[in-house]
Design a protein that fits this description.
Order of helices and strands: EHEHEHEHEEHEHEHH
Number of helices: 8
CATH superfamily: Aldolase class I
Strand content: 15-25%
CATH topology: TIM Barrel
Strand order of the largest sheet: 1-2-3-4-5-6-7-8
Number of strands: 8
Largest sheet: 8 strands, parallel, barrel
Helix content: 25-40%
Radius of gyration: 16 Å
Length: 237
């Protein structure tokens, strides 16, 4: 039985001057969860938000919140994001392997690895679960699907379809075969993040994704309820 399609509203494109209203607008449109992009300016070339925004979102919604930690040393922050109210904590695979030479230095992006230390990553996954949260592993576009040893421990895997750091990027078609490969061996949640819209979402769902993170496509829509309806119906085709 296929997993139902879930819509994950990425608040990166929300109006932060009226965040409570934006959360309500998302709920009224029928989204299933909220995606909070946490960027530190080191793992990615941008700085966004932290635990305080997760707390703020938690105070105005009962829907699940995903904290996507695009930060160095994510293990240091698992407890604080769990305590802030995150239900899913998503950690980047690249934090658990040797970075390729072209992205090891300060300001060299995107971060990519060829393999990861599964034992080290497993400790952080276990920590997430000990806090009563769901654990997702995230893979940047240039990092191979190197998480096979962890699939039995993970609740989900997020395939980045853009190089992380900024919203409004174009979907990378190479994400589609990666989703297909992953779905053949993983029955848990597969999330796709980056450039999801009316053109790319059907292909991602057909490939096996069941969580669609949407930022500018949703927040830029004049009728966001129609966006959610369209995306959810993709699972019925």
């Amino acid at each position: 039985m296929p997993n139902p399609i879930k819509i994950n509203a990425s608040i990166l494109c929300a109006d932060f001057t009226k965040l409570g209203d934006e959360i309500k607008r998302c709920e009224d449109a029928g989204v299933d969860m909220f995606h909070v992009d946490v960027m530190d300016g080191h793992f990615v070339p941008n700085i966004t938000v932290g635990q305080i925004i997760v707390q703020a979102v938690r105070s105005v919604t009962k829907l699940p919140i995903e904290a996507h930690l695009m930060i160095e040393h994510p293990g240091m922050y698992i407890d604080s994001f769990a305590e802030a109210g995150a239900d899913i904590i998503s950690i980047q695979a690249e934090c658990y392997g040797q970075l390729r030479p072209q992205c090891r230095g300060l300001g060299q992006f995107p971060k990519e690895v060829d393999s990861i230390d599964a034992a080290r990553a497993g400790k952080d996954i276990l920590r997430i679960k000990e806090k009563g949260k769901r654990a997702f592993m995230v893979l940047n576009p240039g990092t191979p699907l190197c998480v096979d040893a962890l699939l039995n421990d993970l609740d989900g895997v997020m395939i980045m379809s853009v190089n992380p750091g900024f919203a409004r990027q174009k979907f990378m078609p190479a994400a589609i075969p990666r989703i297909q490969d992953l779905r053949r061996k993983f029955s848990g949640d597969i999330e796709v993040d980056g450039g999801v819209n009316e053109v790319t979402a059907p292909e991602a769902v057909k490939a096996g994704a069941n969580i669609l993170a949407t930022a500018s496509y949703f927040f830029g829509a004049s009728r966001p309820r129609d966006v959610v309806y369209f995306l959810k119906r993709l699972g019925e085709r």
